[in-house]
Structure formats: structure tokens, C-alpha cells
Design brief:
Layout lengths: L2 H16 L4 H6 L5 E8 L3 E2 L3 H11 L4 E4 L6 E2 L4 E8 H31 L6 E3 L9 H10 L13 E3 L1 H7 L2 H11 L6 E5 L2 H9 L4 E5 L3 H7 L8 E5 L7 H5 L5 E3 L2 H4 L6 E7 L3
Parallel strand pairs: 6-11, 7-8, 8-9, 9-10, 10-11
Antiparallel strand pairs: 1-5, 1-12, 2-4, 3-5
Length: about 280
């Protein structure tokens, strides 16, 4: 994870939440009133977000002391103490909500990714994410997928060519689209093409694309069509994939399965924070 970018993100998040100051904490506690914060899991899963805790507390107060008791990717259960921190009470209270919002989401993504990877274990197929992330959180969302044992698709529009139905409709054909981008493309960037018919599959193979995405195709169709794809071309399945059908897709022999719901429909893992005030 890019920690420079993470610090900048956290600063932005705290500016949104704290604004000109925390009216509740700043009026109740002096800057010298010290306390301790404990972050505790209220349900089981795969933890993700140690750097968010560490940097989140220190963005608000660089003098805060932070100890993470679990590592990213570790399994946690109800009651697991994830981290403890000490510092001014007002700083701890300002820090907790932003940190919890992020680690609850990241841990949920890691947990679901881990569950799906275990579900298709042994098939040789890998699960990847998509660009269906919350704007501004993509780095964290994709890191959480990796933490859960999954893999990342392209990070954005800038690091791979992906020719979808609308691109092809305006370009006129797969052949024309691939020829046009290949002329101007650097040699390290791959070209992926989305196909929905056998005719498109044949055209993509003839164009020697790097990756063919079977879009909204059944596992049975993919298994049959893969016979026409040379080993040099990577295959990916996307769309229509549910928890009930994912095994069939993995067993079709496709190299990758992309799942948007890993990030766009995640339900936060329940994690809480308690702050106690030092008596002395």
C-alpha cells in the first residue's frame, strides 16, 4: 500500500469529519487529559487495515502510541482485541470514527474475498476485483481484496486497455479497435476485449489480444468456447456470476473470474472502539 497516499487520504477524511474542531471532545477534555483506546472485533472475519489504524491516529496526534495486535490477513473472532492506543482523550475520540469506517469496510472485503477463494480452491482459477469501488477508496478496496487472497484487475482506465461493447460499437469492429490502440500503445500494456458471441471470440483470437473476457456467458458456453482460445491468451469470466454458480465458472477452465460485488455490495464487518480515561 502506498502510505504517502494513505496519509493524504486520511487527512482529507479528517478535514471532512472534524472541520474546525470537535465541539463535543474539545469542550469536555483538556489537551493534557490522557486516555486509552481499544479497537475490538464484534464478529469473526479476516482483519484488514493495520496501517489505517496506525496512520489514522498519528494524523490527528503524532504523539499517539499505537499497537496493532493482529496483522492484515489474520483471522479474528468476536472479542478479538485488534489494536490499542494511548494519547489525549480528545484526539482518540476524534480519530475513532474515520478509522472504524475504513477498517470495517476493508475487513469485510477481505473476509468475503477469502471466503470466495476458499470456495473455488483447487480449480486453478483466480478471483479478481473490478473498478466498482467507492470513489476515493479504490486503493484501500483493492488492498483489501489482496489481503483476502484475491487478485487485482486493472487499477483504473490508465493501466490497461479494456475494449467493451460501447468501444467496439463506435470503433466498428474488434479488429479495427485493436489495430488502432496497438499502434499507439506501449509494449508493456495489455489489451483485453469483451466478447459475447462466438464470432467475436474468433475475431479477438485473430487479432491476437492479450485477454479475452467472456461477458455474461454461461459456464457451459465458456467451457466450449475456451477450446478455440490459444494458451497464449488469458481468459476471464464476468457477469451473471453468483455464489451458487461460481464453482461452475471456475470449473469451466477460465483463468480469472471478476466479481464486482466484492467491493460494491460489501456489508461492513462489525468492529467497535472503546475509550477509557486515565485516572491519573
Amino acid at each position: 500500500m502506498n502510505t504517502i497516499k494513505l496519509k493524504s487520504m486520511l487527512e482529507h477524511f479528517y478535514i471532512e469529519d472534524i472541520g474546525d474542531g470537535d465541539l463535543s471532545s474539545d469542550l469536555l477534555f483538556s489537551e493534557t487529559q490522557m486516555g486509552e483506546l481499544t479497537i475490538i472485533a464484534k464478529m469473526g472475519g479476516i482483519f484488514c487495515g493495520s496501517k489505517v489504524i496506525e496512520y489514522g491516529l498519528k494524523v490527528v496526534d503524532p504523539a499517539s502510541t499505537v499497537i496493532c495486535h493482529v496483522k492484515d490477513g489474520d483471522p479474528i473472532g468476536e472479542g478479538t482485541v485488534i489494536a490499542t492506543a494511548s494519547g489525549p482523550v480528545s484526539s482518540l475520540l476524534k480519530s475513532e470514527r474515520v478509522i472504524l469506517n475504513l477498517i470495517q469496510r476493508m475487513s469485510a472485503i477481505a473476509t468475503e474475498t477469502n471466503r470466495v477463494m476458499k470456495k473455488i480452491s483447487g480449480t486453478g482459477t483466480k478471483v479478481v476485483d473490478t473498478r466498482k469501488t467507492v470513489p476515493g477508496l479504490r486503493m484501500l478496496d483493492k488492498y483489501a481484496v489482496r489481503t483476502g487472497g484475491g487478485f487485482n484487475h486493472r487499477n483504473g482506465l490508465f493501466d490497461a486497455v479494456m475494449l467493451k461493447d460501447n468501444h467496439l460499437a463506435f470503433a466498428g469492429s474488434i479488429t479495427k479497435a485493436v489495430e488502432t490502440v496497438r499502434v499507439a500503445l506501449g509494449h508493456t500494456v495489455k489489451i483485453e476485449v469483451e466478447i459475447e458471441s462466438f464470432e467475436q471470440l474468433q475475431e479477438a483470437v485473430d487479432a491476437k489480444v492479450d485477454i479475452i473476457m467472456f461477458d455474461n456467458c454461461t459456464p457451459e458456453i465458456i467451457k466450449e468456447w475456451r477450446k478455440s482460445v490459444p494458451e497464449s491468451i488469458i481468459t476471464e469470466a464476468s457477469g451473471m456470476i453468483t455464489d451458487e454458480t461460481i464453482n461452475a465458472y471456475a470449473e469451466s477452465g477460465v483463468d480469472y473470474i471478476s466479481l464486482g460485488y466484492l467491493t460494491h455490495s460489501v456489508k461492513a464487518l462489525d468492529i467497535s472502539a472503546n475509550v477509557s480515561i486515565n485516572a491519573h
